[in-house]
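Re: duplicated header lines in exported structure tokens

Our pipeline writes sequence and tokens for each protein into one text file. With two proteins the header for the second block appears twice in some exports. Here is an export where it did not happen, for reference. First protein block:
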Amino acid sequence: MKILNFGSLNIDHVYRVDHFVRKGETISSKSLTLFCGGKGLNQSVALGRAGVEVWHAGSIGKDGKILLDMLASANVDSSCVAVLEEVRTGNAIIQNDSEGDNCIILYGGANRQITKRQVDETLAGFSAGDFLVLQNEINELAYIVQRAYEKGMKIVLNPSPMDEKVLEVNLKLIDWFVLNEIEAGQLTGSTNLKSDKLISLLRDKFPQAKIVLTLGTLGSCYADAERVVTQGIYPVKTVDTTAAGDTFTGYFLAGVVQGRSVEESLDLAARASAIAVSRLGAAHSIPAMEEVLNDRAYDLLS
């Protein structure tokens, strides 16, 4: 069984600020730091650091070599990443405030230059039963899903950032959804609902799928046609939430692929994301499996 993550690769520009800039306001940042990021890269790094063999597919510009180095450092195969000559690597402008929260502006760049030919050439190396992990920061998402379904791959979708492009995808072909409450509300056309109601609506709308719903400080839950499993958080001092969701996604899927139970996989993901939010940066903040399994290391954090 192989895991292919067809996703974004970004260079993140992180500005440390006291508060998020408001309309008409000019503020000074405390610092500017460049990090490797993109939801796709973050999730691949999480999968790789969790000990899973993973291939990453996507596109960068000639300015994106640092991203290939990051993938290599996490033992992620980047042979399916295209390097484009005339397009800049995707990037993100991130404000990180004194509470550890963030807001993000994305520039797609090379992430939005995926071609159907690249999709077909990439998927040719994978077969029925392999996992495909997707987010919504690249183009040709609907085509990728359709072609992967035809090959019999297991399709995992994290519909983030949520926009109209997600609704162009045949969502009945998705085997796993990993999403937060806002994305769940947008997919179901409902807002301000409690998690149990959102889960019920998602199960009704996508009866074929397994669902993992993240709930912020309330933890997370898993649901399929048979059951619902809940998981709490590991509270730590929050420094930067940028890669928290991606760390959770990568570690949960790694647990599943490694044969762990849903309960064990949720707990693993909760531990990993707690460590990630206690550090600054996106991919750089994602822990290795030995850190996550080391109770003493976690005790020092909490």
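Second protein block, exported in the same file:
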Amino acid sequence: MKIVWIESDSVFLNIHANRLRELGYDLEVVNSISEGLRVTENSFYCLVVYDRSFEEGCGVADIMPLVERCIPLIEVSGIYEPGQHVYQVLPEEHCVYLKRPVQVDEFLYAIRTFQGGRESWLTPYEYKIGLLQLNERCRQVITGDGSVVDLTLSEMKILRTLAFQPDRVFPTSYLRDVVGSRCGGVGNTVQVHVRNIRRKIGAHYIRTVRGSGYSFHRIQ
């Protein structure tokens, strides 16, 4: 998931952005809602974080592109306005409202709302995926038989992307972007990473959709 962050408060941003980058998330920071919407137009799967406390005058019309495209949104505000914040037009499953000050774990849990269902998260870093348990911080997976396997950062990014949206087909080109340019080159293709993940957790979890990409099969 690409996170598009619309923010001008560098202190608030750094507290949370550094943690997200440590966990391997792709984060792009912009300074206006119009720029944020432009970035999302080219993203296959993304989340928008918008700190409304620094920009006045934003109305429903400004965020209608998010509504129409069902792009998930985390709205942050310094003032709680029950029933009045403009993002109330978004379906509940597509919008989370946070009031400053926001704790790091609280913010992570808000992101988890759009990553396979909050009820699946054991902690802000541990996620139950059927018979598997993924720990983002340690980059480890506990398999169904209790074995603990270590993942590389690239492997974790791919597994996390697929597992958070079971049965959704992700194009190989998107997964290549998820891994990032630093992991490019001979022997570091998406296919190689997927093969290594299958070897570590079991071949039946990740399906190849010929001509389209990969999807995750949740096994209970």
